[in-house]
Specification:
This protein has 273 residues and is of the alpha/beta class. Helix content is 40%, strand content 11%. It has helices at 15-25, 37-42, 47-53, 76-82, 96-119, 135-142, 144-147, 156-160, 181-191, 204-215, 219-227, 248-252; strands at residues 30-33, 58-63, 130-134, 164-169, 172-177, 239-240. The longest helix is centred in the middle third of the chain and has 24 residues, at 96-119.
Length: 273
C-alpha cells in the first residue's frame, strides 16, 4: 500500500514529533488526515492552527460522517447498513465505503490543488483550503441506484429484467447483462424464448426459459457463446462469474472467466470552509 512513498515516523504527542511534522508540512501542498476533529485539536492540528502556521497548505480531512457527526465512531459496515446496502446476514464482499471514499479523497486533493493554482498570483501562493470527505457520504453515493429503485427486486437492474441477472449454469454461475433491445433479442434467440416485446423480459416465463437454457450449459460453453457475440455479461459479452465455489480448481485453470465491469465514479466533493 505504501509502494513509492517515503515513510517518516513521528510521535505527534512529543515536541520532537511535532517539529518533524512541521518540517514536512512546510514543504507539502496537501495534508491528508483520518482522525476525528477532537483528536486533531488535542494535537494542536485543527484547521485554524494549521492554516495559521502553514497558510499555503490545504487539508483533506477524511471522517466517518460529515459535520457534527464527525465525532461519531463507525466503520465501513455501519455506513453501508445506514444506507440500506447490507440486506442480509452476510458481510459485503468488499469495503465499499472505504474504497468509494478513497476516490472522493483523490478528487478532493485535485480540487484543492486546482483551486490554489487558479487563485495564485505571481510570487504569491494562494491560501490553502479545507475539504472534508465523509465515508458515510461515499456509502450514500453508492446507494443512490438503490434509493432510486433501480436495484430493488422490482427494478430493471435488480432482478426484474430477465436479461440482467445472475443465473446458475451447469458447473457454476453466469452473469447476464442484456438490457439493450438487440442484446435481449440475441439472448432470447439462443435460449429459445422467442422475440422479446416491450414487457417480455419482465415476464416469469422468459425468466424460466433463460434459466433452463443456462442450467444446461457449462462455463466453457457459455464462454464460447460469448466469443461469438452473445450478450451474456458485462458490455454485451459472456463470462461466468468465476467464483464457482465447488469448481475452484477448474476456475483457476481458466474454465471460468471473471465478469469484470467498469465503474464510472464521479462523486461531488465541495469545500466546507
Amino acid at each position: 500500500m505504501h509502494k513509492g512513498m517515503r515513510i517518516v515516523r513521528a510521535d505527534l504527542k512529543t515536541e520532537k514529533g511535532q517539529k518533524t511534522l512541521a518540517k514536512e508540512l512546510s514543504k507539502a501542498q496537501v495534508l491528508l488526515t483520518s482522525f476525528r476533529p477532537s483528536a486533531m485539536a488535542r494535537l494542536g492540528l485543527d484547521w485554524k492552527a494549521l492554516h495559521k502556521a502553514f497558510p499555503a497548505l490545504s487539508q483533506v480531512a477524511i471522517v466517518g460522517a460529515p459535520g457534527a457527526r464527525a465525532e461519531e465512531p463507525g466503520h465501513d459496515l455501519t455506513y453501508l447498513a445506514d444506507n440500506g446496502l447490507v440486506t442480509g446476514l452476510d458481510l459485503p464482499p468488499t469495503l465499499y465505503a472505504d474504497m468509494g471514499g478513497s476516490l472522493m479523497t483523490s478528487e478532493a486533493v485535485l480540487q484543492a490543488l486546482l483551486h490554489q493554482r487558479a487563485k495564485a498570483k505571481p510570487g504569491k501562493p494562494a491560501p490553502g483550503v479545507f475539504m472534508e470527505v465523509a465515508l458515510s457520504d461515499a456509502a450514500a453515493y453508492l446507494a443512490l441506484p438503490r434509493s432510486w429503485g433501480l436495484t430493488l427486486p422490482q427494478g430493471s437492474v435488480g432482478g426484474a429484467h430477465a436479461g440482467y441477472r445472475v443465473y446458475a449454469c451447469k458447473d457454476g454461475r453466469v452473469a447476464v447483462a442484456a438490457l439493450e433491445p438487440h442484446f435481449a433479442a440475441s439472448l432470447c434467440s439462443v435460449a429459445g424464448a422467442g422475440i422479446p416485446g416491450r414487457t417480455t423480459m419482465f415476464e416469469a416465463d422468459t425468466h424460466q426459459k433463460i434459466a433452463r437454457f443456462l442450467r444446461k450449459k457449462t462455463c466453457a460453453e457459455l464462454a464460447q457463446l460469448g466469443r461469438k457475440g452473445h450478450p451474456f455479461a458485462c458490455d454485451g459479452k459472456l463470462n461466468s462469474m468465476g467464483d464457482c465455489t465447488h469448481q475452484q480448481q477448474r476456475c483457476q485453470k481458466g474454465r471460468c472467466k471473471s465478469a469484470r465491469g467498469r465503474l464510472g465514479f464521479d462523486p461531488p466533493v465541495h469545500p466546507v470552509r
